[in-house]
């Protein structure tokens, strides 16, 4: 199991990572808040959705996974994104650099967390200097983005944004479902802190690192977010961000249609549907269940809906795309890949997921990700019926029944 090429699914990688990591680090990555209902539900909700595949579609040998995002500004090779995840050197010395390099090599986008164990500038230059060989004659393209936690001292946030912009990050993701930090019992029990010599590299020399670097009475993360993050934010944060940066703005952590409408009114560039991997408010709706309402709130606006939470299979990615997500994030499995095999481990995780995505598209009968629609799915509690149209040719499909 040491050799990443021997792994055949993402669950297997988690088991390898578990054996290699310290208990506090593994628990920090794996756990959710309180009873972990939201964590489990995010995965389970995918499994309740069924496919209604189309046959004999005259598919190309390889289905096309290109997507246009951020109002058509960028065409990306893949709808996959590595969402922001803090402290990646806890998994492996390759840390954020290994993860972003592996992502770029696969044409997968990467979002760097504020709470990284590698400096913004170092991640940017590693990402830029990673040369991606053309794949089957096509050059792979992906984005690098920066995720922001808004500090009580706005000068801290402003300086992070300016550094990310100067370093060439292409979008700013602002996370709105934290603070306060969710009640993560494993971290409290473990008195989680960042073991030396690891540090929050974006804040060297600033008081903002102190609570996380030292073992305290409780979770260092909770202490840090309480001491420094602004928990009083409202929608006026969007115009403030616009006054500081020209980067596209993505709001991460939305689960409601009316919040998506507010995001639309504030002309954000994308709404990221997420429950923070079940690490914040427990018992939230699963992101995949929240997606359709958000997508319909954004309809006609040109604003993308992105999604993460519980994505563990190519079929999960296809379901999210069919329900209208433009980008789909895969979180913990990337950390397991990193812990189990460094950059090579992440690369293997992403290649398995891409392969599963390609196979699932073919089996579902979609020539490209852009051909996916809810028509490929049967949602829980609904009974499908498919009728040929009276004119012959393409059939008509409807769904009877009500939501459970
Ligand atoms: C260890 C860990 C650290 C995270 N750190 C951040 C972070 O710094 N910023 C953020 O917006 N989200 C953070 N998240 C949430 C992820 O961006 C993402 O929403 C979530 O992991 C997706 O769920 P999944 O792990 O089931 O794929 C973190 C998640 C994990 C597991
Ligand atoms: C204090 C925030 C820590 C990073 C984070 O977002 C997470 O652990 O989920």
From TrEMBL:
UniProt gene name: HAO
Matching PANTHER family: 2-HYDROXYACID OXIDASE 2, S -2-HYDROXY-ACID OXIDASE-RELATED
Residues reported to bind glyoxylate: 28, 149, 184, 276, 279
Family: Belongs to the FMN-dependent alpha-hydroxy acid dehydrogenase family.
Gene3D superfamilies, A to Z: Aldolase class I
One MF annotation (Gene Ontology) recorded for this entry: (S)-2-hydroxy-acid oxidase activity
Keyword field: Flavoprotein, FMN, Oxidoreductase
Family matches, as CDD domains: alpha_hydroxyacid_oxid_FMN
Name of this chain's protein: 2-hydroxy-acid oxidase
Residues reported to bind FMN: 84-86, 113, 147, 175, 252, 274, 308-312, 331-332
Cofactor(s), by name: FMN
Catalytic residue positions: 276 (proton acceptor)
Domain FMN hydroxy acid dehydrogenase: 2-382
InterPro entries linked to this entry: Aldolase_TIM (IPR013785), Alpha-hydoxy_acid_DH_FMN (IPR012133), FMN-dep_DH (IPR000262), FMN_HAD (IPR037396), FMN_hydac_DH_AS (IPR008259)
EC number: 1.1.3.15
Enzyme class: oxidoreductase
A Pfam family reported for this protein in Swiss-Prot or TrEMBL: FMN_dh
GO cellular component terms listed in the entry, alphabetical order: cytoplasm
């Amino acid at each position: 199991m040491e050799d990443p090429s021997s792994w055949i699914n993402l669950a297997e990688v988690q088991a390898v990572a578990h054996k290699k990591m310290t208990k506090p680090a593994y628990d920090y990555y794996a756990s959710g808040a309180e009873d972990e209902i939201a964590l489990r539900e995010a995965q389970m909700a995918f499994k309740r959705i069924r496919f209604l595949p189309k046959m004999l579609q005259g598919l190309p040998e390889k289905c096309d996974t290109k997507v246009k995002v951020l109002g058509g500004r960028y065409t990306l090779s893949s709808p996959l994104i590595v969402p922001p995840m803090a402290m990646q050197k806890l998994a492996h010395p390759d840390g954020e650099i290994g993860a972003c390099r592996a992502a770029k090599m696969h044409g997968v986008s990467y979002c760097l967390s504020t709470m990284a164990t590698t400096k913004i500038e170092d991640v940017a230059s590693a990402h830029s200097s990673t040369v991606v060989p053309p794949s089957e004659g096509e050059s792979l393209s992906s984005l690098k983005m920066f995720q922001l936690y808004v500090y009580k001292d706005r000068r801290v946030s402003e300086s992070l944004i300016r550094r990310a912009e100067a370093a060439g990050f292409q979008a700013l993701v602002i996370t709105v479902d934290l603070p306060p930090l969710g009640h993560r019992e494993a971290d409290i029990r473990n008195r989680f802190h960042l073991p030396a010599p690891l540090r929050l590299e974006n804040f060297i020399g600033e008081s903002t690192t102190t609570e996380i670097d030292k073992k305290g009475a409780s979770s260092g993360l909770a202490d840090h977010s309480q001491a420094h993050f602004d928990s009083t934010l409202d929608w006026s944060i969007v115009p403030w961000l616009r006054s500081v940066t020209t980067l596209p703005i993505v709001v991460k952590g939305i689960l409601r249609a009316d919040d998506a409408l507010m995001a639309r009114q504030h002309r954000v560039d994308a709404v990221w549907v997420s429950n923070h991997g079940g690490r914040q408010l427990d018992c939230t709706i699963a992101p995949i269940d929240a997606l359709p309402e958000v997508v319909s709130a954004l309809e006609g606006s040109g604003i993308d809906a992105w999604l993460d939470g519980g994505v563990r299979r190519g079929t999960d990615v296809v379901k999210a795309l069919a329900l209208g997500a433009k980008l789909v994030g895969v979180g913990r499995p990337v950390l397991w890949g990193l812990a189990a095999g460094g950059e090579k481990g992440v690369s293997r995780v992403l290649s398995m997921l891409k392969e599963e995505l390609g196979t699932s598209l073919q089996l579902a009968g979609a020539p490209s990700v852009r051909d996916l629609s809810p028509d490929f799915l049967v949602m829980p509690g609904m009974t499908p019926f498919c009728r040929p149209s009276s004119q012959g040719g393409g059939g008509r499909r409807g769904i009877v029944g009500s939501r459970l």
